[in-house]
């Protein structure tokens, strides 16, 4: 814009200059004629024509200087524009570099933030996992304690029930003995000595056999519980010799397959000592006991 205004001003100045120093028609004819005839002859130049030529040369010189000035100013403006453009480019590059650094810094900060969040997430997961493990361990411990307590309660109830049954059985035996004693006393009153002794012997024998039968059932039940029945069909008859306190003195296979008899012998050995009685007469009846082993025993 500045260059265009300056150019217009220079053109206006040249026009004014041309108008102010315009030669007359005579001067034109006079000047033109020598130009045309210069190739043929070299006439003497009048002073007036020399002055006009000098003015024209001066005008031409000033015009050239103005053009040079315009060119210089144009070059200067162009240089300024290029410098400005270069500054803008450098500024843009600087801003781009700054933006790149900012973006890089933001990216690094974002990466660090993401790493921090990831570390916090992993730490939270690890903490949660440890808490779950502790909770599971505590749950398992409480369950084990509860199971121990339950088993202890069951065992306590079992023992209490066994003690109750034992006392009840002892009371029953006491009452039974009392009843029989009263029966004997009644017999003593009504019978003579011979009949009394006979009756007393029969009652005693009945008591002995009843006790023998009960202990035999207990012996069989205990041995069968400890018997690992073979998977094949078979049977075995065993003779057991028993001593005081239920100790097993001898085991003898009377009849049956070898494997069956071996399993029966093992069951008898596992069951020792066997159920017994403090009554010598009862133990005399239990001294030798025959027992059959076959699949029907497990069913019973």
Descriptive report:
The protein is mostly helical. Among the domains are: 2-99; 191-299, Fusion Protein Consisting Of Minor Coat Protein, Glycine Rich Linker, Tola, And A His Tag, Chain: A, Domain 2 (2-Layer Sandwich), CATH 3.30.1150. It is built from seven helices and three strands. The protein has helices at residues 2-20, 25-37, 47-190, 193-225, 258-271, 280-285, 295-299, and strands at 236-242, 248-256, 288-293. The chain has a three-stranded antiparallel beta sheet with strand order 2-1-3. The two termini are 127 Å apart.
Can you describe this structure in just a few lines?
With 300 residues, this protein is mostly helical. It has helices spanning 2-20, 25-37, 47-190, 193-225, 258-271, 280-285, 295-299, and strands spanning 236-242, 248-256, 288-293. It has seven helices and three strands; from the N terminus they run ααααββααβα.
Using only CA atoms, what is the Rg?
71 Å
Our estimate of the beta-strand percent is 5-15%
Could you tell me the CATH topology label of the domain at 191-299: Fusion Protein Consisting Of Minor Coat Protein, Glycine Rich Linker, Tola, And A His Tag, Chain: A, Domain 2
Secondary-structure arrangement, i.e. CATH architecture of the domain at 191-299:
2-Layer Sandwich
Order of strands side by side in the largest beta sheet?
A: 2-1-3
Low-confidence stretches: 21-42
* Mean pLDDT score: 81
> Class of the domain at 191-299, according to the CATH hierarchy?
Alpha Beta
Please identify the structural class as seen in this structure.
mainly alpha
C-alpha geometry = rod-shaped
Number of strands: 3
């Amino acid at each position: 814009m500045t260059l265009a205004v300056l150019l217009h001003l220079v053109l206006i100045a040249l026009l004014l200059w041309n108008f102010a120093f315009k030669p007359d028609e005579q001067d034109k004819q006079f000047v033109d004629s020598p130009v045309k005839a210069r190739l043929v002859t070299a006439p003497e130049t009048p002073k007036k024509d020399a002055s006009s030529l000098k003015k024209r040369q001066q005008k031409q010189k000033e015009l050239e200087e103005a053009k040079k000035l315009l060119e210089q100013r144009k070059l200067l403006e162009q240089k300024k524009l290029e410098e400005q453009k270069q500054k803008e480019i450098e500024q843009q590059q600087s801003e781009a570099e700054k933006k790149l650094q900012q973006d890089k810094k933001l990216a690094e900060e974002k990466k660090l933030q993401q790493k921090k969040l990831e570390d916090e997430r992993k730490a939270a997961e690890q903490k949660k996992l440890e808490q779950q493990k502790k909770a599971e361990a505590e749950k398992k411990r409480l369950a084990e304690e509860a199971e121990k307590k339950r088993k202890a309660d069951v065992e306590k109830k079992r023992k209490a029930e066994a003690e109750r049954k034992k006392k009840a059985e002892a009371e029953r035996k006491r009452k039974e003995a009392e009843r029989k004693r009263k029966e004997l006393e009644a017999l003593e009153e009504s019978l003579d000595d011979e009949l009394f002794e006979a009756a007393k012997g029969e009652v005693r024998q009945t008591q002995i056999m009843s006790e023998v039968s009960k202990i035999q059932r207990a012996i069989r039940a205990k041995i069968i519980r400890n018997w690992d029945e073979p998977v094949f069909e078979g049977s075995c008859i065993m003779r057991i010799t028993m001593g005081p306190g239920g100790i097993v003195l001898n085991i003898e296979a009377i009849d049956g397959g070898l494997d069956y008899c071996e399993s029966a012998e093992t069951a008898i050995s596992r069951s020792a000592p066997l159920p017994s009685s403090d009554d010598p007469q009862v133990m005399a009846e239990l001294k030798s006991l025959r027992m059959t082993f076959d699949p029907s025993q497990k069913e019973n």
